[in-house]
Amino acid sequence: MDDKDSFLHLARPLGPAQVGAQPVTAPLSVTIQPQAIFSILDHSLRRNPDQDRVIGTLLGTRSEDGTEVEIRNCYAVPHTETAEQVEVDMEFQKTMLSLHLRANPREVLVGWYATSAELNTFSALIQNFYGQQGDGTWPHPAVHLTVSTEPGREIEARTYISAPIGVTAERADESCLFIPVPYEIKYGEADKSGLELIAAAKDSEDRSVGVMGDVESLERAIEQVLEMLARVSNYVNEVIDEEASPSNALGQFLMNALSLAPKVDPADIERDFNNHIQDVLVVSYLANTIRTQIDLSNRLATAALTLGPESTGGATGGEGGQKDRQDRRGDRNKGRQQQNRSAES
To answer: Which positions fall inside the MPN domain (predicted)?
Structure first.
């Protein structure tokens, strides 16, 4: 995070708490999946022109002790907001939550989101609604995620939890203290590839980009690795030459990254790579051989079905009929010879 995003978070007070309840404090960290951010941005693009912000429900998983929350999914919740009041469709929220938990039993309600960085009285009211007992996140605090969606500016996210403050019982529902908590937008290799492919479309006029093949993807990955190595090498050289200010955190990160790299001789790497290439070629040759054999078998079977059994059976029948005629001729000749012998006698 940048310096403006840094903060000190000591404890997590539960909220909103009932009178006489003993809150339990524990640290909290939030992990956000990119598909949840995409759903929020899509909801913001489809909002009515007279709406300044839209809200929705956050769903995900929570650790057993409640110290770690992962936001995986979300859905929009209809609401109307004016300068005097705010109305949230609670029945829609309960129905959608029941249907979503039925389809995804491993996920739970973790909080709500809004497409505005502003925190006001209405935000406290909605926060208390999501953190209440029964249909809310109690005894865990509700996570409030704010995502800025102003056109032409970078997307900024913030995560908060709430704590009750010393107010009267009449104003407890619309009052709370928002406490910022650290968050991380986490994505895997498949998500990273998809995001890079989508980001590459902004450089084209028609906002489209073709999918790269395996060889092109490998070439691009190697180029990116070489570029990062060159950038790190330049930074280290500038620090050694006292041209750049050193950073203890960055130096420790580089040391940890280098300690994970295996110490292998370059000749061994080249030998293993060549052996791997040979294995791939052998597998490819066997696959092509099997494919050719299957194709040949299919053609032989098709030829047999096209000719049919009549052609071979007819030839056999013709040979058998010719043999029968020869046998009958032989029998007639034998009968004539016997008649001639009888006449002579």
So the answer is: 30-166
